[in-house]
Design goal:
By secondary structure, the protein is an alpha+beta fold. 65% of the residues lie in helices and 9% in strands. It is elongated and about 115 Å long.
Length: 396
Amino acid sequence: MNDEEMSVGLGRPPATARQAGIKLLWIGIWLAFMSAPVKDLADGNHTPWATALGVLGLLVFVGAYLVLVFRHTSKALDPFRVRASIAFLGALALLLALTFGTPWLVLFVYVAVSAGATMPLRTARWLIPVVTAVMVGVGATLEDPRETITALVFPALLGGFAMTGVRQMVRTTIQLREARATVAQLAANEERLRLARDLHDLLGHSLSLITLKSELAGRMLPDRPELAAAQVADIEQVSRQALVDVRSAVTGYRRPTLPGELAGARTALAAAGVDADVPAGLPADLPDGLSEKAEEVLAWGLREAVTNVVRHSGAHRCTVTLVPRQTLDGRVLELTVADDGRGGAGTTPGNGLTGLTERLASVDGTLTTRATQPRSGKGFTMVLSVPFESGLGSAE
């Protein structure tokens, strides 16, 4: 069982029964405050029939509360049902408190929390004080110490309004996820349109020319075979050039870029629960002279480093920096990926690092690794450096 299956993302509906159980557990933790009515029933302060009805009423209240908060915190699937459920909880809390006494006033705290977790802020900001006032009013009719009633006012107000913030955070997270998915879909659509335009520009003219020359060669073939052969030779030349153009275009599509890999790194680290500090794009002071091949190597290196952080490091934080530096050998672009994980002391380089070293060697780049915290040996830092092309970006 991996960590992803065990965790439930904020604002994300549980995908498995285990995740649903974990979410229910987090909601159910707060039922510890139900100890007052449970103790009241366990102490035998009521007749057997009253105790049985109290147990039934408490179970119904807890069940309705859990269903309401579990289903409607992230999104109110049925606003009418939400309002009806809160009204039911309020009526049941009122009935049980009037019947069994002060220990049952704590049920109003859960009504306030339910209102904050499921109702819009414009409704919750007056409904929570109303629920608290009803609790105080009911408590005033009971012959019990006022300290008990006063002690419940603060949890009711604080719990209710705190849940409005939680509700807003959950729904904002959902909206951000939906916006991210929309942006990704728009980007994919734009990429498809760009691919269609490029293929049209690359192949449209070539295929039209091949078609015309094929028709011309067909008409020339019976009477002027030598001219038809010339047209066939032209067709071969055009088709070969079209094939070269297509291969070049496909290579460009497949080539990773630093901006794309930086965005992918942020997404991958966030999905793995790693606190990521990744630049939004290339440095503003980046000089000219970085070749496509060198950028491609750095992009592959960033992908390999982030993959190692996500899969093997067990890190909680990862920092990525990308800065140009002046060295004795000339101007270089330096990429650093540092994490606070378990480190790589005593391990041999894997195929990924070996392949990355070979890629860097092809552009005269270098790769160095070290512990992020040298004294303790914890963490792993990878530094990749590629030179700018000679004559460009060498001057300060």
